[in-house]
Write a structure and sequence with these properties.
With 290 residues, the protein is α/β, with parallel strands linked by helices. Helices cover 41% and strands 17% of the residues.
């Protein structure tokens, strides 16, 4: 083999090796990111509109529509403990609530995801806006880390300033769901942020706070709440400026009893009954004031 052919062969070996790894779905270490894997996401083609979820319930579009958002999903499992994953627990809760609302009738309902798939935070509330939703409910399950004896549900509404240091830490953790390999993929423009506290949007925030209070009222005696369940923080998933939106923390996955309740058919049924009742009262109230 001539020297020229040797040089060509040496130059082509890495290319051939990488092509082979790619063909078999393998990846190589990425030193600059400090990872030995690469996460690939399927994104919509530029210019194409994302497929919207199905809407169940009455086909009459004059009926109120609630969009339920099971948090996390796909490569983002959320909190975990005892072999349970937050993304699975909240999907079960969201599905139970959807089915209860459909069964009782009179309310239209859609889930942002009906399976284990990833959505960026902005895409979640964008679905609610695209469907012209009347209410947006994001469902999560919390983690207490190494702190023992912490249990109970809480309800978050949007605020520019967190209601407590714990709420601020929670917002930072949830908002980081849009970060993959250190890259933020769901940032919003300043225009969206500035409109949130505009006078024309205060009604949505007022209705969000009222709905949060309804959940605690209707859940007394059935659901377990923290001593200070009503909280606020700058949560990206709640940034729909014209749709009343709340984030419901169903409980702590790190508490064995609470995790068992959230993942059991009985616990999901109790949750669905309370939240369904709160949703209906909310829509009854807002229809009177419209």
């Amino acid at each position: 083999m001539t020297l020229r052919n040797r040089l060509i062969f040496v130059a082509l070996v890495p290319v051939i090796a990488l092509a082979g790894l790619y063909a078999f779905g393998r990846t190589v270490e990425v030193p600059t990111l400090g990872r030995d894997y690469v996460i690939r996401l399927s994104l919509p083609v530029a210019g194409e509109s994302a497929e919207l979820p199905r809407v169940l319930g009455p086909q009459d579009k004059s009926r109120p529509l609630v969009v339920i958002d099971p948090g996390h999903g796909g490569h983002d499992p959320g909190a975990s403990a005892g072999g349970l994953l937050e993304k699975d627990i909240v999907l079960g809760l969201a599905t139970a609530l959807r089915d209860r609302l459909v069964r009782d009738g009179g309310v239209r309902v859609a889930l942002t995801r009906e399976e284990d798939r990833f959505l960026v935070l902005g895409e979640r509330f964008a679905i609610a806006r695209a469907l012209d939703a009347d209410l947006f409910l994001s469902i999560h399950a919390d983690s207490s880390g190494n702190i023992e004896g912490v249990a109970g549900a809480s309800i978050y509404t949007l605020s520019d300033e967190a209601s407590s240091a714990a709420a601020a830490r929670f917002a930072d953790r949830e908002n980081s769901a849009d970060t993959i390999n250190g890259v933020t993929i769901g940032e919003q423009s300043d225009a969206v942020s500035s409109i949130l506290f505009d006078l024309s949007q205060r009604r949505s925030q007022r209705d969000s706070a009222a709905f949060a209070r309804l959940i605690t009222r209707e859940g007394q005696g059935t659901l377990r709440f923290l001593s200070d369940p009503l909280r606020s923080a700058s949560l990206a998933v709640l940034r729909a400026p014209d749709v009343p939106s709340v984030l419901y923390e169903a409980g702590f996955i790190t508490d064995e009893e609470e995790a068992r309740r959230m993942s059991s058919p009985e616990g999901r049924a109790e949750f669905a009954e309370v939240l369904s009742r709160a949703v209906r009262i909310h829509f009854a109230r807002t229809s009177v004031t419209d």
